[in-house]
Amino acid sequence: MIENVVTVKLPVGESLVIRKNRHEPAAAGTKKLKRLCIVSGTHGDELEGQCVCYFLNRILKENPQHLNGIVDIYPALNPMGIDTIQRGFPGFDLDMNRIFPGSADGAPTEWVASRLMDEFAGADFAIDIHASNIFLREIPQVRVNITTADSLVRYAKMLDVDFVWVHQASTVLESTLAHSLNSIGVKTLVVEAGVGMRITVDYCQRLTNGILNLMKNEGMWTGPVRPVSAPIISLDRAVSFVNASVPGVFIPSVRHSDNVKRGEEFGTIVDPLTGEVRQKCVSEVDGLLFTLREYPIVNEGSLIARILQEASR
Questions:
Q1: Is there a contact between 50 and 193 (Cβ–Cβ < 8 Å)?
Q2: How many CA atoms lie within 13 Å of 261's alpha carbon, on the beta-carbon side?
Q3: Residue partners of 55: CB distance under 8 A and separation at least 6
């Protein structure tokens, strides 16, 4: 059932409308059902979640007999951003994922965030689906703040991703949707996969299967689920960052998600005018190349890669 959950009047007789599609068993009775929220489209240039929402809506619609819980699917928390291909909230020049939990008495964007918090309150789980931006490509991963790792990593392992990145606490995360929902008891996992403004279909298929797997483990789904991969967990591993020291054009020499060795060259930054190699991009560790530069034009300081160091023996 499709519902409007937030509506804001705009100039020229238009409205900002955030919608959800609710799936629930036809004969739930008085039994209390678990509720899962699938959230995407917070950033208008991240489109992988649109494909996941499509796959999941279709599966749940065609197989209602297997559903034993409530699934609310929100494809576009920032519909204006998606419509205009803008990362942030158009007209306000801000990142929507930096205004939670919002304020009922604040500016329109803060009011929207506040209403969304009311909407998600009481859910058992939420999966906040993101892609990378247009500059970087990410392998399918779940990002978990270290403060919530004890309660969330077990669920992250169910999502059929390659990697669970348990990262350190940071004050900027306090204004994200995931942090705000975890603070009110909604177990929220942040998924990053793919690249901005594109859809990587196989990543989306895997995540859809992973969501069904989580639902099955929680008694919300009785239908078929393919086996899921066991992800690498970063708890005992460091992440190495490689940045550009010069401007130029980055040309990779390995594939994204490859394993690289310490001292191995995985790409170069070149000068197309002179035909010179300006920087050899070399790994400082043995490990997994889980982030790789997608957009080739770089400036000094641009992120080129993230490499998950192999576990110490």
A1: no
A2: 2
A3: 204, 205, 208
pLDDT tens digits, one per residue of 123-172: 999 999 999 999 999 999 999 999 999 999 999 999 999 999 998 866 55
Hey, what are 283's tokens? 């790994």
Bridge partners (DSSP) of residue 297 are 249
The answer to whether 33 touches 68, Cβ cutoff 8 Å, is: yes
Per the CB < 8 A criterion, the answer to whether 181 and 127 are in contact is no
- Cα–Cα dist 166/10, whole Å: 40
Q: Count the Cβ atoms, other than its own, within 10 Å of residue 177.
A: 26
* Residues 281/303, Cβ–Cβ less than 8 Å: no
Judging by DSSP bridges, how do beta strands 232-233 and 163-167 pair with one another?
Answer: parallel
Cα 126 to Cα 246: distance, rounded to the nearest angstrom: 41
Beta bridge mates, 21? 2, 73
Strand partners, 64: none
Query: 280: buried, middle or exposed (CB in 10 Å: 19+, 13-18, 0-12)?
Result: exposed
Residue 29 · residue 44 · CB < 8 Å? no
The Cα–Cα gap between 272 and 252 comes to 15
**Domains of the chain in sequence order:** 2-233 (3.40.630.10), 239-309 (2.40.50.100)
User: CA separation (Å) from 252 to 34, 96, 100, 193, 288?
Assistant: 45, 32, 37, 19, 15
What is the residue whose two structure tokens read 């035909």? 275
Does this model's pTM top 0.85? My answer is yes
Residue 192 confidence (pLDDT) above 70: yes
Give the model's pLDDT for residue 201. 98
DSSP for 113-141? HHHHHHHHTT-SEEEEEE---SSEEEEEE
The answer to whether the beta carbons of residues 152 and 146 sit under 8 Å apart is no
